[in-house]
């Protein structure tokens, strides 16, 4: 395995997961802010590692495997924390849909790759918008500093939920012909 900047950033993002969880549950007033900040740092490293890999041609097979795992692990950790913290249907249902979408799309991409058709379900702009809305939403809901931050987080969460369902539908539709063969 070749250690380069993107792989280091991805590994750092994975290492942030337990730190994020511990900080969120610490019993001090600013714990939510710092947990949201750690999540923001993780989101920024996600964008940065992809940019560096493309800009400096630093792609590795290890990075191709680990980057989506790191992204999904951090988001799922944040979703679980938010669901537990809010204990409300309007958080739980979208969060569960987001987790299920990640499992479905990941399995679909794997299956399509085995068939030599991975490009059919490559990351789309819709998927990127979903990710941005999801990151903004989770930062707002984790921090929950005041009513404005909460409502911005919740509205972004609803937008992310809609984009989650829409992007999943688009990926399934794109693969539809191969899914329904035989």
Key phrases:
mainly alpha; 182 residues; 7 helices; Four Helix Bundle (Hemerythrin (Met), subunit A)
Descriptive overview:
With 182 residues, the chain is mostly helical. It has one domain: Four Helix Bundle (Hemerythrin (Met), subunit A) (Up-down Bundle). Helix content is 82%, strand content 0%. It is built from seven helices and no strands. The chain has helices spanning 5-25, 31-55, 61-86, 89-114, 125-143, 147-174, 176-179. Helix 3 (61-86) packs across helix 5 (125-143). It is globular and about 55 Å long. 34% of the residues are buried.
Number of strands: 0
| Multimer state | single chain
Q: Look up the CATH topology.
A: Four Helix Bundle (Hemerythrin (Met), subunit A)
Mean pLDDT, nearest integer?
94
Tally of helical segments: 7
Rg for CA atoms = 17 Å
What is the secondary structure topology, with strand pairs?
Layout: H1 5-25, H2 31-55, H3 61-86, H4 89-114, H5 125-143, H6 147-174, H7 176-179
Helix pairs in contact: 1-2, 1-3, 2-3, 2-5, 3-4, 3-5, 4-6, 5-6
What's the gist of this structure?
It contains 7 helices and no strands. It is mainly α and 182 residues long.
């Amino acid at each position: 395995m070749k250690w380069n900047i993107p792989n280091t950033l991805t590994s750092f993002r994975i290492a942030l997961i337990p730190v994020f969880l511990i900080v969120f549950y610490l019993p001090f007033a600013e714990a939510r802010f710092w947990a949201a900040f750690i999540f923001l740092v993780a989101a920024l490293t996600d964008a940065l590692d992809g940019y560096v890999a493309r800009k400096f041609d630093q792609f590795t097979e290890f990075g191709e495997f680990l980057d989506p795992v790191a992204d999904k692990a951090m988001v799922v950790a944040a979703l679980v924390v938010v669901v537990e913290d809010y204990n409300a249907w309007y958080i739980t249902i979208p969060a569960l849909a987001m987790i299920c979408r990640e499992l479905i799309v990941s399995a679909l991409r794997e299956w399509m790759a085995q068939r030599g058709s991975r490009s059919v379900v490559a990351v789309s702009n819709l998927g990127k918008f979903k990710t941005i809305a999801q990151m903004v939403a989770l930062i707002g809901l984790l921090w929950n500093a005041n009513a404005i931050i909460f409502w911005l987080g919740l509205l972004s969460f609803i937008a992310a939920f809609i984009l989650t369902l829409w992007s999943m539908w688009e990926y399934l539709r794109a693969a539809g012909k191969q899914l329904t063969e035989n």
